[in-house]
């Protein structure tokens, strides 16, 4: 501080304390004697004033760091291409869709994000007009050539058009393809400059979207990570490599990135997001609202993210205070933290909190309908898939693997999703005896010397199920092996990273795989589209393509939630259980853990992360970590 004061005095001769009439006095020789004496006293006193100011200056606040993990590796950070949970978790912190979900409102509600308000909707339900909030900027990148780049409505036009780019094969294209007025032009000759009548920016901060037909879920689509706004300059500066150069307007920006290992996100210095939410009667929600209302987001300075694919590593990392919270206690690790359904007393004594959360998630095992072994629509193939479904021991899965933190999936829809029927029951129960009888009846009665069934044309029959190369994946392999062997079906497992399995699934080279779907938006359509024929190879990994199902799906998509749509959903469930492209497994009850220094935590049913809202009591964390060491 003394050095700074001296430099300032040398530069201006008479710094701020010597102002005369608001002007800087640079030559003391012109001053009257009395003024000279005052100036000399001031000069002598000035270092003491500076030193005193230094002594009184508050210490710089400690950096607030959120310590997190992702359970699988990211595939890439391009909003138009990524569809795995790890990448989506990062994307929603780096890029901004027009709308987001209210952090506290239950059931889930949308609210403006980069828009100034919810859109104006025409009387016919076709035209949506958004007003973009001025003063939102992309994070710096060489593609902008040193210019601070403001985001405008035209950037959303460009970003939505990218979903149609045939080179990207976007898994999110289904949300818009064929729905926006004039979008067929993008199929004839795709270009970012192709004019689409239903996708226009008539003014700098005005975006207008016109649909061909009303879509009750359209606003939900505009809150997905896929619609996060990107800058054309960045995409064109890195051809084919946009996923390696994430540049958005979201609350965070990438500081460091070591693929499949570690990422560091910094608070976006340009962020202008401010917290607003609608809490209910829950006191915890009201406390969060009181703490955050009107404050700038994000609340932490940086987020350090590790990739932790092994369940044990995640759990031990949390218990060793390397991570601030852990969502969904791994099923194989539940006994480490829970006793008699409650958090162990020794963990509660550390201030750790356990909460249960009904995730909008469905676990299912899908079978490739184009595969020569399990695919097809003939009676023998239907019998094989039905037998596989009948052989699955749901109760054992929930009790032994999920430790009671799940409920049986009767259909694709989890509870709390619009369209869910709590009274619906699957007509395909766990019944290995019936499975054996069904296989015997439809040509699978012959056995090889090891007792395993042969095909109707008397060839060896081996099922191949992909699985994740983790402890949890191996446990699930053993359950499936036990279930399928019980009905005479041989199965082999091909272990790989989930990202590699997803890639193979998209090109149709996976026969069977146990997967899960977390809602992009809280409506049944988001789950039933997973079996819609035109989505084959994208969201529809099973490649199920049944006209009767497709027709009902299209009819249901045009309806709001109500009795008419509920009837169609019932019929679609019956078709799924008749043809068995899926074995619906479970809906998870997530057991979540958090440390006491983490503030404002509230699990959201749709969004993947809460990072922008979270705060950290640095002193409390330091005391806890110090006490344990």
TrEMBL record:
<keyword id="KW-0813">Transport</keyword>
<dbReference type="GO" id="GO:1904680">
    <property type="term" value="F:peptide transmembrane transporter activity"/>
</dbReference>
<dbReference type="GO" id="GO:0043190">
    <property type="term" value="C:ATP-binding cassette (ABC) transporter complex"/>
</dbReference>
<dbReference type="InterPro" id="IPR030678">
    <property type="entry name" value="Peptide/Ni-bd"/>
</dbReference>
<dbReference type="Pfam" id="PF00496">
    <property type="entry name" value="SBP_bac_5"/>
</dbReference>
<protein>
    <submittedName>
        <fullName>ABC-type transport system, substrate-binding protein</fullName>
    </submittedName>
</protein>
<dbReference type="GO" id="GO:0015833">
    <property type="term" value="P:peptide transport"/>
</dbReference>
<dbReference type="GO" id="GO:0030288">
    <property type="term" value="C:outer membrane-bounded periplasmic space"/>
</dbReference>
<keyword id="KW-0732">Signal</keyword>
<dbReference type="InterPro" id="IPR039424">
    <property type="entry name" value="SBP_5"/>
</dbReference>
<dbReference type="InterPro" id="IPR000914">
    <property type="entry name" value="SBP_5_dom"/>
</dbReference>
<comment type="similarity">
    <text>Belongs to the bacterial solute-binding protein 5 family.</text>
</comment>
<feature type="domain" description="Solute-binding protein family 5">
    <location>
        <begin position="110"/>
        <end position="536"/>
    </location>
</feature>
């Amino acid at each position: 501080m003394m050095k700074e004061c001296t430099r300032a005095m040398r530069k201006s001769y008479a710094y701020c304390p010597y102002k005369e009439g608001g002007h800087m006095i640079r030559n003391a020789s012109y001053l009257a004697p009395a003024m000279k004496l005052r100036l000399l006293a001031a000069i002598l006193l000035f270092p003491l004033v500076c030193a005193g100011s230094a002594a009184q200056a508050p210490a710089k606040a400690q950096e607030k760091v959120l310590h997190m993990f992702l359970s699988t590796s990211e595939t890439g950070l391009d909003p138009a291409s990524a569809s795995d949970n790890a990448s989506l978790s990062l994307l929603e912190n780096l890029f901004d869709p027009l709308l987001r979900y209210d952090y506290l409102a239950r059931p889930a509600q949308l609210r403006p994000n980069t828009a100034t308000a919810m859109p104006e909707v025409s009387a016919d339900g076709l035209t949506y007009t958004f007003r973009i909030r001025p003063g939102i900027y992309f994070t710096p990148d060489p593609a902008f050539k040193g210019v601070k780049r403001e985001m405008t409505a035209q950037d959303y036009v460009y970003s939505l058009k990218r979903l149609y780019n045939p080179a990207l094969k976007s898994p999110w294209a289904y949300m818009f393809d064929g729905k926006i007025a004039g979008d067929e032009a993008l199929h004839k000759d795709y270009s970012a400059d192709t004019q689409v009548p239903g996708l226009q920016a008539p003014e700098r901060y005005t975006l207008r979207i016109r649909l061909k037909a009303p879509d009750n879920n359209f606003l939900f689509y505009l809150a997905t990570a896929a619609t996060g706004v990107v800058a054309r300059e960045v995409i064109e500066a890195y051809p084919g490599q946009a996923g390696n150069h994430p540049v958005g307007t979201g609350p965070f920006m990438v500081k460091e990135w070591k693929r499949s290992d570690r990422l560091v996100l910094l608070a976006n210095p340009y962020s202008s997001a401010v917290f607003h939410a609608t809490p209910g009667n829950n006191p915890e929600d009201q406390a969060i609202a009181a703490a955050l209302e009107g404050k700038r987001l994000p609340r932490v300075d940086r987020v350090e993210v590790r990739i932790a694919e092994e369940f044990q590593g995640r759990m031990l990392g949390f218990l060793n205070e390397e991570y601030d919270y852990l969502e969904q206690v791994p099923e194989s690790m539940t006994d480490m933290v829970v006793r008699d359904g409650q958090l162990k007393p020794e963990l509660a004594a550390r201030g750790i909190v356990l909460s249960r959360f009904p995730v909008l998630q469905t676990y299912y095992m899908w079978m490739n309908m184009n595969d020569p072994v399990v695919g097809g629509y003939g009676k023998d193939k239907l019998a094989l898939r039905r037998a596989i479904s009948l052989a699955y021991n749901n109760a054992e899965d929930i009790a032994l693997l999920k430790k009671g933190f799940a409920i049986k999936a009767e259909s694709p829809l989890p509870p709390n999703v619009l369209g869910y029927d709590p009274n619906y029951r699957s007509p395909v129960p766990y019944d290995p005896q019936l499975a054996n009888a069904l296989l015997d009846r439809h040509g699978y009665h012959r056995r090889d010397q090891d007792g395993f069934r042969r095909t109707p044309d008397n060839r060896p029959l081996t099922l191949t199920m992909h699985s994740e190369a983790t402890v949890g994946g191996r446990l699930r392999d053993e359950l499936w092996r036990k279930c399928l062997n019980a009905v005479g079906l041989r199965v082999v497992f091909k272990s790989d990273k989930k990202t590699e399995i997803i890639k193979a699934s998209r090109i149709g080279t996976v026969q069977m795989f146990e997967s899960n779907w977390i809602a992009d938006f809280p409506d049944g359509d988001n789950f039933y589209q997973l079996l819609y024929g035109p989505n084959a190879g994208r969201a529809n990994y099973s490649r199920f393509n049944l006209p009767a199902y497709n027709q009902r799906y299209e009819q249901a998509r045009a309806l709001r939630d109500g009795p008419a749509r509920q009837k169609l959903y019932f019929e679609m469930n019956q078709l799924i259980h008749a043809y068995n492209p899926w074995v619906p497994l479970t809906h998870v009850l997530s057991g979540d853990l958090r440390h006491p220094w983490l503030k404002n935590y509230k699990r959201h049913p749709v969004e993947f992360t809460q990072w922008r809202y979270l705060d950290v009591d640095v002193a409390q964390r330091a005391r806890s970590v110090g006490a344990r060491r």
